[in-house]
Amino acid sequence: MDRRKFIKFCSAAVPAATIGSSLGSCIFSSTFIPNERHKMYDDDFIKKMADTAMFLAKQNGASYSDFRLSNFRSQFVSAREQVIQAISDSENFGFSVRVIVDGTWGFASSSTFTEMEVDKVTKLACEIAKANKKIQRSKVELVPTASYNDFWKTPIKKSAFDVSIDDKVSLLFKVNEKAKALGGDFCSSFIWAVNEWKYFASSEGSYIKQDLHRIYPQFEVTVIDKSTGLFDSRESMTVPIGKSYEYVEEFDWMGEVEKAVEHAKMKQKAPSVEPGEKDLILDPTHLWLTIHESCGHPTELDRALGYEANYAGTSFMTTDKLGKLKYGSDVVNIKGDRTQKDGLATRGYDDDGVKTTQWDIIKQGVFVGYQTTREMARFIGESASNGCAYADSWSHFPIQRMPNVSLQPGVEKLSLQDLISDTEDGIYIVGDGSWSIDMQRYNFQFTGQEFWEIKNGKITGMLRDVAYQGNTVDFWNSCDAICDESEYKLGGSFFCGKGEPGQVSPVSHGASPARFRKVNILNTSKEAGE
Amino acid sequence: MILNENEAKNLLTKILSYSKADSISATLTGSNTFNLRFALNSLTTNGFSDGLNVSVTSDIGKKSGNVSINKFDDKSIKEAVEKSEEIAKLCPDNLEFMPPLGAQEYLKAINYSQETEKLNHTNRAAHLAYIIQKSLEKGVVSAGYFEDGLSFTAVMTSNGLFAYNKNTGCNFSATVRSEDGTGSSRVEKSYVNVKDLNSKRLTDIAIQKCKVSAKPAELKPGRYTVILEPAAAADMIALALNFMGARAADEGRSFFTKKGGGNKIGEKLVGDKVTIYSDPSDPKSPSIPFTSEGYPRTRIVWFENGVLANLHRPRFWAKEKGAQVVPYPSNLIMQGGTKSLKQLVSETESAILITRFWYIRTVERKTMLLTGLTRDGLFEIKDGKIYRSVKNFRFNESPIGVLSNLIDFGKAEKAVGSENETLQIFVPPLKVNDFNFSSLSDAI
Q: What's the whole-model pTM score?
């Protein structure tokens, strides 16, 4: 996951769209809706352009071609205390043509959508493929897929784009005001809504339209002890999710603000952790990221094969370990799923035009499945892709991206309270903090938002300065209990980073709280030499 | 799509002419970029992208509205301006409102090269052909990326500002791994002028270094003297800049907060040898001489002989504090010495040589503690020589710690770190005491 992209987005958005407000003077009365550019073209025109591209590609030597037209709409509203930091409503519209000429990919794209430009871009894609043939040593071959003529839409209840900016700003101001009233020194908050509209057509006969929605609201409270200069923050336990504004409306914002301020203050006064081995209970609000980094990424087939060696890295889960590696204990079952309810990576079809599905990645602790695309699947002898191709823009080549990868809940009844009661000396970690893992996904270090000490089956108070380190296989083999489905929650990210040029993809990870035995705990203050 | 200065001026003038607001500003950006990616000694993907975008901000009193579009017929432009005004009217007053800038003077830009603009498919493929061929000959497995692009930025405001910059860039990176998977090395360089890019030399270095890096030995985690190669040093100084905001420091939530209030400007925070500055017109690291709102970027010293000289401070906060505006820079230059990396190594009795870092994240903002890993070549130095390749480590260390424990440095050069995508960086290799390696990693 790459939060730099998020920070970059925010810092870029602020100067361009800074709109201020004073408390109580929020007087927006309408929703600003920019032209949704894909709606300016009717289906017949779009199909005509797609067919033109594919016809020209064939004429120019392509054995395969696809055409992708997309519009990414993004609305970001953020506030700091009672000052609006950004209201940005942008659209990014364009198309691309991808071809295979004599076993070599060619790809070109443009933001100008005219017949003349489709002609130019298609020919350029073929030209690029031909020019690069001499540095292509192994021919690109795609595993087969059925062709589809379909429309798929995220099953949302209330589009965030139909809600006025007024309502969004009011909510953010209320959150920030409440945090200040309860003793938070600073509070920032935002609501980020995305609509990804895309049209895919291939020379194999597919014409697929998709209308994908996702939303990410969050706040962060900071408390400062002016006498010591110490400060601590706590983010809301909201998650980015494959829903729309209904998620914002269903969330208990005021309850969460109360908890956040109280816990940030507690964290500031909490004792510093004693480093050493302890049992960990990881809440789904934290565990999603551990799953993402230590299971999601290493089971990407392109990475395992070496396609990402120059950037994201390779994987210790090499193809010779498929079906053999005891990745985790017997209770560990992890699935890849592009159909999961509310998942950020959920959709009808991937960007190869493959219908999405779900499959086992880890079964009873054994590594049994990779994430694949049409290009990669054949390298492990698969005759079909499991639908993991994705491009984050019309201007980017689709590459293998992570589906929703989720830890399956325990089959036996086990609540979080039961698990805590069963733990003698441990820490219960809530929320994600800092994260880092090596380029083959062995060694990781994570922090969180809250660290609760467990002694003899009871939570005894909060700790601070906690980080844990582990090695993926040892860690997952130390997992001895997973709560049942009543405790299951989704976490996720808008910004999983991969590829060159860099691309981000949205992805969710579900889990129930799980316990890991004898994990190495670090004290971050001591690590800083304090 | 690339517009020349006149075309950009005409288009922006047209955009501004539709305004009925008190003031308006518009930033126009366009680019043409090509890329080639390879892995397993063969081309994998490639691409061409052509884009043009405008961001329009209208102000009515202290209210502002912003719209971005990438469609440029008269009707769309007019609608975009009207919509930005519509948003502004609906907004409450901005307590931190700053009016658009008036006319400014800029340093002469030197970040464009005709040679880079004229690259063609054959030139591009040649950079990859050499490394693919050499890798096959030497029995190693290479992966990498080549990108070149031409882009422009133009800004105009109704208060009389016009700024235009056309720039080019090219980047080559390659990771070379041994066939048995026990060795890895990496090179990356980025320049304005493709003539400065010697991908053949970089390839030869990467292949040679990969061979040396194979079958690493295991050292115990702990505090070591290290030499950071420029790519590793680049990450440390670029990440330090992220923490160096004046507002966070003044508000009490930064390492740079002074106990009792205010910030630490003027305090000696790091080693005497540390002088870091930004200057877009410095030929060592040319970059764009203005910000997206058209504010001029000039020479800014961040650290001078170890003393904190500046923190970045946007216009509103500068006004609040009665202090100078310090824009976020487009480049970072750290003063180095005259020694080559080889000489620095030869003068070192015992240390670890770090090629680069990977996956660096902030652990604690108040101490600037970072965690991350070494990657693509970690070597033990003994008695002035590379003694052996060693296994990668996770580190827990802060950029302030690195700059405070600086013992010596070499000759500075253009470098690309793993965590920075926007700053052009020129930095020396750094020899640093007491670098904290926290645990071992099996990753190659």
A: 0.94
Domain boundaries defined on chain B: 5-211, 216-444
The residue length of chain B stands at 444
DSSP conformational letter for A410: P
Structure tokens at B404: 């405070």
| ipTM for the assembly | 0.93
> How many beta carbons lie within 10 A of that of residue A85, not counting itself?
23
Task: Find out if CATH 3.40.50.2000 is the number for domain A3-269.
Answer: no
In A, minimum Cα distance to B68 occurs at A90
Domain spanning B5-211, CATH architecture: 2-Layer Sandwich (3.30)
- Ramachandran region of residue A182, left (φ > 0), alpha (ψ -120 to 50) or beta? alpha
For A99-156, how does the pLDDT look when each residue is reduced to its tens digit (9 = 90+)? 999 999 999 999 999 999 999 999 999 999 999 999 998 899 999 999 999 999 999 9
> Nearest 5°: phi and psi at B239?
-70, -30
Using CA coordinates, name the residue in chain B closest to A221: B253
3-state secondary structure of B73: coil
Nearest-angstrom CA–CA distance, B163 and B109: 11
- Which residues in A lie closer than 8 A to residue B422 (C-beta atoms)? 8
Which of A15, A84, A307 minimises the CB distance to B292?
A15
Question: In a 10 Å sphere around its CB, with 0-12 CB exposed, 13-18 middle and 19+ buried, how is residue A483 labelled?
Answer: buried
Is the pLDDT at A35 greater than 70, yes or no? no
- Closest-CA distance of chain A to residue B409, Å: 23
Q: Tell which residue, B421, B111, B176, B399, has the closest CA to residue A500.
A: B421
Which residue type sits at A268? Answer: Q
Per-residue confidence (pLDDT) for residue A18, from 0 to 100: 27
Reported confidence tier of residue B65, pLDDT bands at 50, 70, 90: confident
> What is the domain partition of chain A in residue ranges?
3-269, 279-527
Residue with tokens 């764009």: B288
